[in-house]
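I have a small job for you when you get a moment. Can you supply me with one protein entry, sequence and fold together? It will help me judge whether the discrete encoding reads sensibly. Write everything out right here, beneath this request:
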Amino acid sequence: MAAVNADPEVMRWIRDGSVRDEQQTRGGVQAWESEWESQGFGLFAVEIRSTGELAGFTGLSVPDFLPEVLPAVEVGWRLGRSHWGQGLATEAARAAVRFGFEERGLERIVSITQVGNDGSERIMTKLGMHPVRETVNPTCGRRVRVFELSSDQYVAL
């Protein structure tokens, strides 16, 4: 995961676009692991079945960085660049959404992306999500778009 977080092109759309070093990545992974204990959900490793290679992650988290959408659970993903354009993010995020609605009984799942990140918006649309607001991420000052999917909409897909 440290290699993924160290790639400027991967991190371009994450918060202020800064890359993360191994220590920062380790701290992030520890925080993600504690979310499983406190929330009953979190992030999943995305691995390539044929090789076992770590491609990145997907999963559910509480988007504390954007208080105006709370209470909410966000589906997100981050894959290494060599795994882009293969449908992995959509497949993995779809499984995380299914887990959130079917296993955790969530009523609503959001996804948040910076304006201009068309690739992530395409994935959100494939998940059945629709845009509900545009605002500014207060942690970095960048414009973001919030997409949403309710449990009723999920069932109707």
Remarks:
- The mean pLDDT is 96.
